[in-house]
Amino acid sequence: MPGTRLRIRARDLSWEQLDDEVVILDLAGSTYLRLNGPGAVLWHVLLTVADEARLVEALLEEYDIDQVTAQRDVDAFLANLRRANLLETVRTG
Q1: Which pLDDT does position 92 carry in this prediction?
Q2: Rounded CA gap, 31 and 20, in Å?
Q3: Number of domains comprising the chain
């Protein structure tokens, strides 16, 4: 949606970068998550406000994949974060 950007929920989360993994503790949901590879790349982009196009771009920069694959991976990743209630929507403009 134009003017809509996303970021990782700021409240009740603790995370650490451990080698090539991001380890996340959702204090509100008492959930422990581990991300590596593309998930870790996307997590770091979402620490600031980003739109889906920026997420796709980040995967294209990091991996030798095509646009369709990058978009599919971003869609799946965002769906998982939404189910886990880890995303915030930020409206701009």
Answers
A1: 75
A2: 20
A3: 1
